[in-house]
TrEMBL record:
Tree of life domain: Bacteria
Protein name listed in UniProt: DUF2158 domain-containing protein
Organism: Litorimonas cladophorae
Listed InterPro entries: DUF2158
Pfam families xrefs: DUF2158
Higher taxonomy: Bacteria, Pseudomonadati, Pseudomonadota, Alphaproteobacteria, Maricaulales
Amino acid sequence: MSELKTGQVVRLKSGSPKMTVKGPDGDAWAVQWIDRNGKLQGDSFHADMLEIFVPAERY
């Protein structure tokens, strides 16, 4: 995943809550999410650690 876009919803490949891309942060991407307690959290991750979130289809 070489190019992410601000506002895209992503997850860590190893599993995580849904996170929103804020933008590039050096050689990583800044993201933010709401934790279980309703608090806004943020961090930066290398693009190789992230995957675009695709919601499951509902039947």
